[in-house]
Amino acid sequence: MLDQKTIEIIKSTVPVLEKHGETITTRFYQLMFGNHPELLNIFNHANQKQGRQQKALAGTVYAAAMYIDNLEAILPVVKQIAHKHRSLGIKPEHYPIVGKHLLLAIKDVLGDAATDEIINAWAEAYNVIADAFISVEAEMYDEATQQAGGWDGFRGFIVDRKVVESDVITSFYLKPEDHNGIASFIPGQYLSIKLEIEGEEFTHIRQYSLSDAPGKDYYRISVKREAGTPNPDGMVSNYLHDGVNEGDILKVSAPAGDFVLNTEKNTPLVLLSGGVGLTPMISMLKTVVDIQPGRNVTFIHAAANSNVHALRDEVEELAALEHVKSFVFYDSPTEEDRMNNRFDVEGYITREWLKDKVSIEEADFYFCGPVPFMKAMNRSLKELGVKEGRIHFEFFGPKGNLEE
């Protein structure tokens, strides 16, 4: 426990962290990777290059300082990050390295303003925060290992099938190399895939949502090809599309993630997706049909056109059921799309459309897609009076802020 004086000192740094947080976290990563380049085998290089990880960490440090006297308040954030850490293989021995370089970065950026008193207080606070993460992650490691079909670290999976779903999305069906059982998962969760790409000094790890229902003898991920290899996001997705073939072995960590479907509720369910954001939504849709056959579901997907619309046949098959509705939005439909009535609405999903077509007052909403899409959905739902507890969303990548 922290004493009151330490808490007051940490709280006094909140305005400074609000102003200089990203500068501090940027410097932190520079220092840490300079001294420990081996950690680049764990961290997402694309998120580093694009500044997303720095921004996310700054937000976490700011929240920790704000709630240093009530860390329970940020437990949901801790759990979300802990899921990612477990899937990446972050271990207790990594935390002292992070703490050391975070303090060095604070001192480096703030200079004389970072007095010994402030640095010592943050050292104490960091140890308390690190212990909280380590404790939560220890439970997650135990659960991942001890569950039926579970495992620790990365396990070999054979690419049993590789299926082109659209011009930009390909599915990979993964079966365990050892032919033993595989862990179940909750719809909405993801796998971490570790890749060694020829010519790359460090390994690359990426998370991909599971795009099928649990209970199969395989996992399925559906990966969007990110345009252009100069784009750091594109290196891994292009490698999966072009360099990984049926029969190849991928290193996979056990399913993780806290964006999950609540099957304890029987409220109407609205699943909103943009682009490749449909992957966790498909898993949720299939699961509800399997285990909650009477639950009303509305599946709403937005894409440019049919050329990039993946897995549509699977949704259409389920939409034939009485309690499942499906709507497709294309913002750039082709002439063939128009001639063959391949979509329901031209344009974007709007607040007015949702108000007219969806039972707003009762439903639980889950959405995933590009950040602009998610900001629009979040804003529309809140303007329609949907309470926060019925709004659920997933970011691809570090946690962001939909209120910006």
Automatic annotation (TrEMBL):
Instruction: Site Influences the redox potential of the prosthetic heme and FAD groups: list residues.
Output: K84, E394
Which reaction does this chain catalyze?
2 nitric oxide + NADH + 2 O2 = 2 nitrate + NAD(+) + H(+); 2 nitric oxide + NADPH + 2 O2 = 2 nitrate + NADP(+) + H(+)
Globin domain location is 1-138
Q: Please list the cofactors this protein needs.
A: FAD; heme b
Q: What class of enzyme is it?
A: oxidoreductase
The record ties this protein, via Pfam families, to: FAD_binding_6, Globin, NAD_binding_1
Cofactor: how bound: Binds 1 FAD per subunit.
As for what it does, the entry says: Is involved in NO detoxification in an aerobic process, termed nitric oxide dioxygenase (NOD) reaction that utilizes O(2) and NAD(P)H to convert NO to nitrate, which protects the bacterium from various noxious nitrogen compounds. Therefore, plays a central role in the inducible response to nitrosative stress.
Protein name listed in UniProt? Flavohemoprotein
Q: Which gene encodes it?
A: hmpA
